[in-house]
Amino acid sequence: MRQIAEVDEAIANGFALAKGVPGFLGDNELRFLGALAALTPAIGALVEIGSFKGKSTVMLASVAARFGLGRVVAIDPHAGLGYLGTQNEYLAPTYEEFLSALKTAGVEEHVEAHRAFSREVAMKWQRPIRLLWIDGDHTYRGCKEDFDLFSPSLAAGAVVALHDSLNTFEGPIRVFVEEVLRSDRFGPCGFVHSIAWGQFRPVDGERYREERRRLEKRAARLIPFVENGEPKGLRKIAYKLNRSRVPRMLPGTEELGKRLRLI
Predict the structure, then answer these.
(1) 21, 62, 80, 228: which one has the fewest Cβ atoms less than 10 Å from its Cβ?
(2) Can you tell me the distance from the alpha carbon of 44 to that of 248, in angstroms, rounded to the nearest whole number?
């Protein structure tokens, strides 16, 4: 296991490089993503679906460079679509800003950029994955497709993390509940702010069934509120009340490292 002080230093450095990049990750979400990159014990690629302007990419690439984890596979069409799904307002193409962020942070050599849709990259994908970061199309169809295309390549001990699972999108929360929390292939799991995460444990995931069930009981209550779009009025108040009951604090580096360790 890596030294905690070294991991904390790597996260702090990645945070300093990525904080100024435009994006939708909160500060603690950004730190947590860096911790996952550093502490996940599996061997394989770091895969990011949904790069936008490079905020998470810079963090992941900075940590990857520090610990020799290989290049971050960053997948995004940068096509001018609302990156949270086609129902969102138009966004200008982001590829040049993405490349500029990587260059400014000095991590461009540590990123394997794919200006493409995830399904196009998946057609030729043959590598094991140690961290699958899903932050692309937030519709159920899009998020489920990303999970289905890349989760078969998860290495034992890998982590799947989905952004905006505790915001008002159907895809991330539903995929997390249905595919992770209800599956004995996964072990330790949780939320950090709006990031949902679970460790792929195909051999001993059953040991964590009760932990997953407790979290599922709270998380599944959110799904009916977001199945037909963003809740309004009293439904939005009820959604927020149920969301407040989902534990989502940032764990310490040492605590996270112990949870992810394969025994």
Answers:
(1) 228
(2) 27
